[in-house]
User: Which sequence fits this backbone?
């Protein structure tokens, strides 16, 4: 298998970073193709915990080349901070991290606009990560954005940036928000972009050369299927295509170059931010938060929790063409006597087996549950499929069956070694 796409099959935070890190052993290149610093991918290597926002999780393996593709929106200040953070732990991305010259940039005014728009929405807010994602993609689609390639011409870039800050300051004022100090904003961005110049490259060409040379590419999806701008629970979504197709447009790699699609799903469901979540359940939240788990990697917010929703993951399998399922956080359910799985929705007296795209209708959906016996044994020290408790194996296989996928990986802890391959 040469080229693999990995996507989140739920609402993000499925454990993509952990699985990517595990799979990077079998990859030459790891690519991020959409989203931005709204992502927070946790990887634990030995005793060190890394949270990656913009840089592909593959950076932690020293042989691997990493690419931030054209579909990502890049906050240059944040990216430089992330590079410096890695350097402090002894990992220098120079020479093996390449950033697309066609990727759009996120500036301080995008973040300010994100906050101002959320504040104006009041109760109807999306609950964004405030990383400027929506406004930056908005500029891209509006054709007023600035791309990474423009930093290579420093003089012209400074002029373009100054003009953009002024224009967006007027916008901020019109929204009742404080405009940004022009000089200080310029300085902070220019300081970062000066350092980032050596990372900028034509990554589309680079990836094509790599495929021609039969290099193995791993695409690291960010967010999750139901945060997709087209297929998610709109408007409570992010601003990029988080599904498998987004990895192709966001990197310039053609769909027929992809050999397999791995969907990552937790053994239960979580979501941060607003929007419907039919299998949300207090009991699951109390259990996981009680264990100190399920707090956001980017914002620290408490994640909403619920039972595994087979309706949504089945739909994710359809939208992404998932060939392999990775079930993570099985160990989170270790103590339960019985475990519920949402197998369908009831809407207006009828049973349905898909998510209605109309938000009002989705909000009215009630979960139909099937109950599975728990295993009530710790699984975090288990390393092989055969030695997992029988009920844990049955449960994980049931999730694959209910979602029409093949179970390929089961994860029983945040570390590399806590990953079971079937
Ligand atoms: P991502 O955004 O999909 O990469 O996921 P996050 O890193 O935001 O959130 C997943 C959380 O679950 C992180 O704290 C991971 O360290 C942790 N994690 C991943 N897989 C497992 C697992 O199988 N068991 C446990 N206990 N934690 C896991
Ligand atoms: P990873 O890659 C979970 C959510 C936000 C909010 C909505 C829009 O770590 O799985 P945005 O800032 O993108 O405009 O916010 O999307 N969101 C995520 N939720 N994991 C993520 O990334 C997310 N990225 C965005 O909470 O509901
Ligand atoms: Mg995350």
Assistant:
């Amino acid at each position: 298998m040469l080229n693999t796409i990995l996507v989140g099959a739920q609402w993000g935070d499925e454990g993509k970073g952990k699985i990517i890190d595990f799979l990077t052993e079998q990859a030459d290149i790891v690519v991020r193709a959409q989203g931005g610093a709204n992502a927070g991918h946790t990887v634990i290597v030995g005793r060190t915990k890394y949270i990656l926002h913009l840089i592909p999780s593959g950076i932690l393996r020293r042989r691997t080349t990493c690419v931030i593709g054209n579909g990502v929106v890049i906050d240059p200040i944040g990216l430089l901070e992330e590079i410096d953070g890695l350097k402090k732990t002894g990992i220098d991305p120079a020479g093996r991290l390449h950033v697309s010259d066609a990727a759009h940039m996120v500036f301080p005014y995008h973040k300010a606009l994100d906050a101002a728009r959320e504040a104006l929405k009041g109760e109807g807010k999306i609950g964004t990560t405030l990383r400027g994602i929506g406004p930056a993609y908005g500029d891209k689609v509006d054709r007023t954005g600035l791309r990474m390639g423009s930093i290579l011409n420093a003089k012209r870039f400074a002029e373009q940036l100054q003009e953009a800050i002024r224009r967006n300051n007027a916008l901020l004022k019109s929204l009742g928000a404080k405009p940004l100090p022009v000089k200080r904003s310029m300085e902070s961005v220019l300081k970062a972009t000066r350092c980032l110049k050596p990372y900028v490259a034509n990554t589309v060409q680079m990836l094509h050369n790599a495929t021609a040379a039969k290099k193995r590419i791993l695409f690291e999806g960010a967010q999750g299927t139901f945060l997709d701008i087209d297929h998610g629970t709109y408007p409570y979504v992010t601003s990029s295509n988080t599904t498998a197709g987004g990895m192709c447009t966001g990197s310039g790699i053609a769909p027929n170059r992809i050999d397999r699609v791995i969907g990552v799903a937790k053994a239960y469901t979580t979501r941060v931010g607003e929007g419907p979540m039919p299998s949300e359940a207090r009991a699951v939240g109390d259990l996981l938060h009680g264990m100190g788990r399920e707090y956001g990697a980017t914002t620290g917010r408490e994640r909403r929790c619920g039972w595994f929703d087979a309706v949504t993951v089945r739909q994710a399998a359809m939208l992404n063409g998932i060939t392999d399922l990775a079930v993570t956080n099985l160990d989170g359910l270790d103590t339960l006597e019985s475990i519920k799985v949402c197998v369908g929705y009831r809407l207006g007296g009828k049973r349905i087996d898909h998510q209605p795209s109309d938000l009002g209708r989705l909000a009215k959906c009630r979960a139909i549950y099937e109950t599975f016996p728990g295993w009530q044994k710790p699984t975090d020290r288990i390393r092989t499929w055969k030695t997992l408790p029988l009920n844990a194996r049955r449960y994980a296989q049931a999730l694959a069956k209910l979602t029409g996928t093949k179970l390929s990986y089961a994860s029983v802890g945040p570390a590399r070694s806590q990953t079971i391959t079937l």
